[in-house]
Amino acid sequence: MKYIKNKEQLLSHGNHKLREIAIGIVEHALAKADPYVATNKLVKLENNILYVGKQTFNLSNVGKIYVIGAGKATYPIAKALEEILLNKIYDGAIICKYGQEGQLKRIRVYHASHPFPDENGFSAAKEVLKLANNTKENDLIFSCITGGSSALMPYPANNISLEDKHLVNKLLLTCGANIIEINSVRKHLSQIKGGRLAKNIHPKAHLINLTVSDVIGDPLDYITGPTVPDTSTFDDARKVISKYKLWDKLPESAIFYLKKGNQENESPKPDDLKNHHIDTYVIVPGDSACMGAEEKAKQLKLNTMILSTMFEGESAELGRTFISIGKEIYLNNRPINRPCAIIAGGETTIKLGNNYGLGGPNQEFAMSSLLYMKNINNMLVLGLDTDGTDGPTDIAGAMVDSQSIIEAEKHGISIQEELSKHNETEILLKINDAILTGATGTNVNDLKILVIL
């Protein structure tokens, strides 16, 4: 499978050799993070015995089999499960992002909005919860909840409207908070997140989570939060709101709910779900794309270093850091010799003001590096959101080299000015440096690459 749809456009200018190398690394990295392949490795059916890792299930003793889920990497998992189990699946419901292609025979596929929730997601969330409530003793439930489920499966707490939930989401996504902080709040404004979906599944059924991580460190309650116990509290959520000074911006319904939140309406903790049978498999860890990128770079005979898979903070600052490292290598061959590839991952953010254009963290990372790359002809920087949509845009990210500066100047574009407005998408499309993949079917941590020849 080829992921990058506009390869010819990306190779139409700039340093052709660098770009060929970067495209090859990206293709291999995304293939290594494929949840469909990972599911088929983990789950096997032989005669009437189902193997999930080292677990075995004699299906003669199993009640009904269900598949539920939501997220940007959910469809490939559900597809693999349906192909393995065929008509043994009694019912299923998953929620995917608009643009995710494909339908299934035994599992209902719903589509909804991301990164901001909509009515279709709300309606679909009700179907998922209804299915959970229908489970009985000895039933087997596969849950395929992956990154993006918070927006795709919205079920606001009582007296909080979907419109208010939408506003809370927007405030959290633009204030500079990381995903742990964001989800601490979102889980405490929901009837389905923070382990609440698991609590609605029959305690004597068997719940198996198959998940893909897009969170640094792969913490379970932040990657498959609705179906595992929650480690965050209302106090954590309130601290996030205070830290980012959001109290005077939140809708009244959210303020009231968060302030009155206490032990009585707290999300389920480990003791609350101790009688439920839950097993969780992280079938694709968050650093998978980085590991795949490293493997391909070595195959290409590049000196290779994974700088970190845990980058957080401002995307533009990381772009500057990458170029600083790149210049050190370019001029002094340290910390490694060129030709080389520096690889990193994580989840960087952008803090937006009141007026901003269209862009995303990986676009801003790549474009900000251009401010420091002039006249360096053998260096390329790439930033990629592995799900194929960077921020609220339809592009996956960008690759830039010194030719990108010349292209921008030809169009009379001030990189500094456009970055100050967080207006990267329009510029990157204009200079043909945007990476287009469409929905990749996976969603692990972002991928950052620096290639120097």
Q: Care to describe what's here?
A:
With 453 residues, this protein is of the alpha/beta class. It has 2 domains: 7-33 and 287-452, MOFRL domain (glycerate kinase, domain 1); 36-155 and 190-232 and 267-284, Rossmann fold. The chain has 18 helices and 15 strands. It has helices spanning 7-10, 16-32, 35-42, 74-85, 119-133, 149-152, 162-174, 179-186, 196-200, 220-223, 234-243, 252-260, 288-299, 315-332, 361-369, 402-410, 415-420, 424-430, and strands at residues 43-46, 49-52, 55-58, 65-70, 89-97, 108-112, 140-145, 206-212, 277-284, 303-311, 340-346, 379-384, 397-401, 434-435, 446-452. Helix 2 crosses helix 13 (288-299), helix 3 (35-42) runs parallel beside helix 4 and helix 14 packs parallel to helix 15. It starts with 6 loop residues before the first helix and ends with a strand.
Structural class: alpha/beta
Q: What is the CA–CA distance across the termini? A: 28 Å
Record the strand order, biggest sheet.
6-5-4-7-8-9
Largest beta-sheet characterization: 6 strands, parallel
Q: Give the helix tally.
A: 18
State the helicity in percent bands.
25-40%
Q: Overall mean pLDDT score?
A: 96
CATH topology of the largest domain: glycerate kinase, domain 1
- CATH domain class name of the largest domain: Alpha Beta
Please indicate the percent range of residues in DSSP E strands (runs of 2 or more).
15-25%
The Rg value, from CA coordinates, equals 22 Å
Q: Indicate how many domains the architecture comprises.
A: 2
Number of strands: 15
Q: Can you tell me the residue ranges where pLDDT is under 50 for at least 5 consecutive residues?
A: none
CATH superfamily of the largest domain: MOFRL domain
Question: Mind telling me which CATH architecture of the largest domain this is?
Answer: 3-Layer(aba) Sandwich
